[in-house]
Amino acid sequence: MLLRTRVAIVGAGPAGLVLANVLRQAGIDCLVVERRSRAHVENRARAGLIEHRTVEFLRAHGLAGRLLAEGAEHGSCEFRHGDGRFSVPYRELAGGRAHHVYPQQSLVRDLIAAYLADGGTLLFSHPAMAVADLDAPDGERAVLRCESPDSDPVLIECDFIAGCDGFYGAARPAVPAGRLRADVKQHEFGWLAVLAETPPATNEIIYALHRDGFAGHMLRTSSVSRFYLQCPVGDHPENWSDDRIWSALHRRLGLSDSELRPGPIIEKTVLDMRGFVAEPMRCGRLFLVGDAAHIITPAGGKGMNLAIADAAELADRLLVHYRSGNSAVLDGYSAARLPDIWHAQEFSHWLLHLLHSPVAGREDSAFLHRLQLSRLDRLRDSAAFAASFADSYAGPPARSPVR
């Protein structure tokens, strides 16, 4: 089967769906292909901390209705070590920029519903297999080849391809050798990520530094919470029984049974903690968006927000291109996004090393731990240091559209 469109979008995650909705609203023909089923995409639990700039962009495009109605706004977070604890009112320190806590899967459902209601084409269970003619000259088109579950392969002729299909997708590997630079950082610790049916223990996100390792209590809904526990690289979820998880959370977070009530654990997985940035984020008629171009650790809640910021930037530039015929505007996509991406990488790296216990057995472990305590003291006692943290944690202000 042969299909034709202006922009073929690979991946129905937040980035691909935001891009598809904005293009569709502007009358620019596009379609989305997704390798997973709709049920899988709409129910995979991921992020939940949505920055002010993301909310404002979604609001401007009429995509934030349920987020604003059901999401909870938050503007402070708490740090704990031993018996000490303090809050950082980052909304106040960052000029009113707060977060909304709203599960990623709920946002994905909203974006799918909006796109389909507007007549958009979304092919689930259609994995992208190959990309051709990325360097096709003006007047010619790129071709995306997808598998079909019940017919011949689908060929999509298009002006541009937006690779929003994640780190392991087909988009980035389609770039010819030597055209991308990749910078990688593998961290020396892992995270056990836990999703549990238990109400939040507090009204704030908690970051706890403990001799046994970092613990984090993240907010999701009134009945479901996300937790993180520092663990060794290469650890396995099977090593963590439910009892061990709850015991570690109570101990490291300093929460009593009455504050943190154990409930059914929905999901537990060990995260590969790494940073990755590929540049440039464009190769001919292919644009890399979100995790296809960069991976960031969960520390600071930056991943989904960076992906949607990529989509917003690319959408604006495509709109200018199609309305004015200005092809040069597309050349600026990568350069516009990379400074923000590297700022987020630096902040996430800093936050990780603020909170995580140094690897045991290193001769400098005690020294590194004292540095951590000094940074916590500065975050608690220095208004300037706290303001700098708040500015990065809250994320950049709402962006101005590309003209």
Q: How is this structure best summarized?
A:
35% of the residues lie in helices and 26% in strands.
What does this structure look like?
By secondary structure, the protein is an alpha+beta fold. The protein folds into two domains: 240 residues, FAD/NAD(P)-binding domain, CATH 3.50.50; 119 residues, D-Amino Acid Oxidase, subunit A, domain 2 (D-Amino Acid Oxidase, Chain A, domain 2), CATH 3.30.9.10. The protein contains twelve helices and 21 strands. Strands 1, 2, 8, 9, 10, 11, 19 and 20 form an eight-stranded mixed β-sheet that branches. Strands 6-5-14-15-16-13-17 form a seven-stranded mixed β-sheet, with helices on both faces. The protein is globular, with a radius of gyration of 22 Å.
Defining key terms:
single chain; 403 residues; alpha+beta; FAD/NAD(P)-binding domain; D-Amino Acid Oxidase, Chain A, domain 2; 2 domains; 26% strand
What's the CATH superfamily of the largest domain, by name? FAD/NAD(P)-binding domain
Low-confidence stretches: none
Number of domain units: 2
**What does the average pLDDT come to?**
93
* Biggest sheet statistics: 8 strands, mixed
User: Judging from the principal axes of the Cα atoms, what is the shape?
Assistant: globular
* Number of distinct beta strands: 21
User: If helices are DSSP runs of H or I spanning 4 or more residues, what is the number of helices?
Assistant: 12
